[in-house]
Design brief:
The chain is an alpha/beta fold and 204 residues long. The chain folds into two domains: 106 residues, Rossmann fold (3-Layer(aba) Sandwich); 94 residues, 3-Layer(aba) Sandwich (Rossmann fold). The strands form two sheets. Strands 3-2-1-4-5-6-7 form a seven-stranded mixed β-sheet, with helices on both faces. It has a two-stranded antiparallel ribbon with strand order 8-9. Helix 1 packs across helix 6. The protein is globular, with a radius of gyration of 16 Å. The two termini are 18 Å apart. It binds 5-O-phosphono-beta-D-ribofuranosylamine.
């Protein structure tokens, strides 16, 4: 990451954008010491993209439907680089990244997932947790590699599953924690006081 000037986040999203909003609010209030450099969506109608524009951030969209993954990812990487992005944050970005994209931002891509990985990767993690009958689930911020929800874990928070939970109520309880730990993980990664040993992200 470049030294001196404030670090710049690139946010990739496909939908609602509540994690993006939580991060953006922390940036705008100064609780998170960085800038939002660029917000990208692969879905033109993503609410998160509209919010990014409302908040005055540089934002863009390339519809992904029908475009070959590597070609698409090269275009996204180009946009992020053009905007001087230091750390890429996936915030409900519903696409697997190509190996080539990942290698352009080595250990500089974060994702948030609504379960305690490696339990319940992929879609509908809260539904998976409910139907499996676990008593505790949670959320995970992890570094991204080219496999689904699989890179080294940065932070995790447990969340109880209550007997009368629905997917909706459980998702809401997890989401509250997501909004807190994503900014914490970003702050830590930007500070750089960690080392990675195998799959372990260790504070130094
Ligand atoms: C969150 O639950 C996140 O963990 C998952 O996708 C959802 C995105 O929600 N990766 P939002 O768009 O940030 O509101």
């Amino acid at each position: 990451m470049s030294a001196g000037s404030p670090k710049r986040l690139g946010i990739l999203l496909s939908g609602r954008g509540s994690n993006f909003e939580a991060i953006a609010r922390n940036v705008l209030s100064g609780r998170l010491d960085c800038e939002v450099g660029f917000v990208f969506s692969n879905k033109p109608d993503a609410a998160g993209l509209a919010l990014a524009r409302e908040l005055g951030f540089a934002a863009g969209c390339i519809p992904s439907a029908g475009v070959e993954r590597e070609v698409f990812d090269a275009q996204v990487a180009h946009l992020l680089q053009e905007h001087g992005v230091d750390l890429v944050c996936l915030a409900g970005y519903m696409r697997l990244l190509s190996g080539k994209f990942v290698s352009q931002f080595p250990q500089r891509i974060l994702n948030i997932h609504p379960s305690l990985l490696p339990a319940f990767p992929g879609l509908d993690a809260q539904y998976q947790a409910l139907t499996h009958g676990v008593k505790i689930t949670g959320c995970t911020v992890h570094l991204v590699d080219e496999n689904l929800d699989s890179g080294p874990i940065v932070l995790q928070v447990p969340v109880p599953v209550l007997d009368d939970d629905t997917v909706e109520s459980l998702s809401q309880r997890i989401l509250k924690e997501e909004h807190i730990i994503y900014s914490e993980a970003i702050a830590w990664m930007l500070k750089g006081n960690y080392r990675i040993e195998g799959r372990r992200v260790i504070k130094v």
